[in-house]
User: Fold this.
Amino acid sequence: MRLLFPNGEHAPVDLKDGVTRVGSAAGSDVTLIAPGIAGQHCEIDLVGEAAKLRVANSQNVVLVNGKQVAGESPVKAGDLVLFAKVGARVVAVERQAGAAAGAAANAANAAKGKMDPAEDDGRTRIRQALAQFVLRGVPGSTFGKTYPLYGTMTVGRHSDCTISIPGEEISRHHARLKVLPDGIEVEDLGSANGTFVNGKRVHRGTIKPGEELRLDTVRFLLVAPGLEAQASAATKAAKPAAPPAPEPARKGSAMWTWLIIGIIVAGGAITALWYTGMIKIP
Assistant:
């Protein structure tokens, strides 16, 4: 696993088996100098692919997906972790068998002209977990912004919210969002101006992809990127094919048609001449 700090408070950190200590103290494995970070703020214990985050002092603020950790909490790829006000994303990593094996493979590929041997030295590769649901801002203060949703998250104007949205119409801690298999559970946290799903004020409700979430006047559309891609592919597959071009008339059929017309015209002319007495038929 790896910790990524999107705001640049620390370089990416590869979590190794054992305990990784986070704090402001100089001897910390991850040193964070920021308001609210204690000398020994917390620690992350990684065993194989399983990681646990431990907070020894209840005064040290640590949140996982918007929920404060009291004692111990499991962490996994895709989780959002807040160390006081410093945010980090947990991502999964894929490791090659070893740097030596990677270097040997790269050298072989370079000899074939496929790649530069310095391009890949067996270092950790990152695989970012894809969010199942995303909030997309619609016309207003959040227009054009997107907010991936993971686990349980809080929305509000306070900086300790997982999704912090400035604006007086938003309460400090406005709503809690929880990812479900088929949508998002929305819980109002006692906001002053209300939480709305499809225009209806709710204390607790569920929102599905394509529906609208509104926090007072701030509006979002819930989208599911994977489902959008599938729907687009299905639409293309269902598009009706162009009708086949009409078959050109056969040459033989046209000849017979003109022959019949000629016989009819000739017969009519002969009849007319006989009727006027210009020709006599014995």
